Amino acid sequence: MAKYSVHQQPVETLLSWIKAGEIAIPEIQRPFVWKAAKVRDLIDSLYQGYPVGYIITWRNPDVKLKNGELSAGKKVLIDGQQRITALTAAIVGRRVLNKNYKEINIRISFNPITEKFDVLNKAYENSPEWINNINPIINDEISITKAIREYLKVNPDVNENLIEERIENLKRIKNKQVGIIELDHSLDIDTVTDIFIRINQKGVVLSNADFVMSKIASDETHGGNKMRKLVDYFCRLIVDKDFNKHIIDNDKEFASSEYYKSLKWMATGSDDLYVPEYIDVLRASYTYKFSRGKFSDLVALLSGRNFETRTYEDTIAENSYKMLSEGLVDFVNQTNYQRFIMLVKSAGLISQKLISSKNSLNFSYALYLKLRNQGMPESEIQHYVKRWLVMSLLISRYSGSSESMIDEDIKQINEKGIELYLNQMEQNHLGKGFWEFALVSQLESSSINNNAYNVYLAAQCYENAPAFLSKSMKISSLIEQRGDIHHLFPKKYLSKNGKTPKQYNQVANFVYTEQATNIKVGMMPPKDYISKVLDQIKGNVLDISTIDSGKMLENNLWVNDIPSVLYTASDLDYDNFLIERRKLMASKIKAYYEKL
C-alpha cells in the first residue's frame, strides 16, 4: 500500500487551495518565526527556479455519515506552515504575527536591473531602481504593461527589453512549482510523525498536540475551528491584554460567540504562575474530559475512530468534539481557573520558578476539574489536588515519557477514585526510604532547578517563614521580588579555603536573606558573623541583622533548618554541616507534605 503520493503544484494553485479551504491550514494565529530575510530568500529561490522544499499534507479519513454516505476528508497541513505563511505574506500581502504577537506586513522589494530581492527599507523606498512591493505585480492587481511602463518612466536610461523580461520573470513566480507530499489517510499518527522527522532533518519536533491543533483547525462541521481559536486566543490574552481589542475589531463572529464570553475575563485577568501554552490547555482539557492521556487517541476520536470496528463514524467524531468543547470551556472558566491558581499558591508554590514541571500543573488542573465536576466538596478537592501536585513534583512523575504516565494516572483515578489511588502512589513512592534517603540525596545538588529544593522553598512559603537573620521580612516576599540567595558559608570564604563552585554552591548552603544583610556578611566565616549579630543584640545596634534577641536568633535558625553548629562553624565543619542541613530540609518537606 502506498503510504504517500508526491506531486508538484504551481504556487498559484497552492494559494488558491488555501483560500478555498481545500488545504486546512491551522489558523495562522501562532507567531511567524521566520525572519523577513528568509522570506526574501524563498521568493528569490522561486524566481531562480530553485527547489523550495516540500509541503506535507495528511488527508483526513473519509467519515461515515448518519445516512450511511461517506464524506471525503480534507487535506490537513502537517509541515510547511512557515513557508505557506511566507508566501501568503509576500505574494498575497497578508499580515503576519511576529513573536511579540504584533501584526506586521512583510514587503519584499525587487531590483530588475540587478535581479536582487530584499526586504523593503527606506533606502529602497526612495530609490527608483527598486520596485517597492512585488505582491501587486505577482497578484495581478496591476497589469504587467503598466508595471513596466511605470518602471521605465523613472529609469529612462535602462535597457527596455531587459526590464520587460525581468518583470515578466517576476510575475512568473506564481507559476513556479512547489512539491507536495500527501500522506495517506490510513496512516496512524506515529507513522506520520516518523515520516515527518525523517523528511525534516532540521531536528524540528512535531508533537501530537500539533496534530490535534491542525485537526481541530480544519474542522468546520463540528465547530473545531472555533475551538482552535478559543485555545489560541486564551493563551494569547494571558500575555497580551491588547489582543482583546483585535478580537473585537477583527473577529466579530468569534466575539459574539459563547466561547468568547468564556474567555474574555482574561483580558483583565492575570496569570504569572501557570501561563499555559496551547499544548497545556489541550492536555488538561482532554485528560479531564476523556480520562485519557495520549493525544494520538484524541486525534483518532476526533476523526470518528471506532476502536472496535476500526471504522470512522461521524457520530463518534461529533460526540468527541462536543466533549472537547466542554473540556476547553471548563478549562478557561474564570472561577475554575482562578480557584486552581489560588489552590496552588496556598500550597506555598507561589512562583513559576518553584514549579519545574508544567505537566504536573496540567495534570493537577485536570484532576481539579474532574473532582469538581464529580461534585466533591471543595475542601477535599484542595487536599487531594495539593498532595497530588507536590507528590508529582517530588518524584518527578512527568519528567520522562509524560504522556504514558498521564494516561496511566488518569485511568487509575477514574477506576479506583482519587483517595485509593493517591494512597497507593504514596505507599509506592513516598515510603520511609524516600523521606530519609532518596530525598536527602536529591538535596545533594548545586542546581537550584532541583525539584526537592523548590518544594523545600514552597514549604518555607507555606509556613510563612522569615528570611535568614530577618525579623519580619518573609521568604515568600523575597522570592516574589527576586530577592538575594545568600551562602550560609560565604562563597569567597570557601573558595579561599580550597572549595570548588560545585562544593560551595550546594543548595543546602543557600538561604534567602535581605540584600543589606548579604552585603554586610560579605566573606566572613559563619562563627564571625553570628558572633557579630550576638554582639549587636547585646549592644542594641541592629546593623547586620534586624533580629533583636538571642531567642529570636535561635528561632530564626530553627525555622530555616540551620544546624546550631553554625554558631561556631569554620570551613572545616562545612561538609558535616551540609549533611546535617539536608536531613533537616528533608524532614521539613515531609512535615509540610503531611499538612497538605
TrEMBL record:
Origin: domain of life: Bacteria
InterPro entries given in the database record: GmrSD_N
Domain GmrSD restriction endonucleases N-terminal: 12-216
One of the Pfam families matching this protein, by short name: GmrSD_N
Full protein name: DUF262 domain-containing protein
Organism: Mariniflexile aquimaris
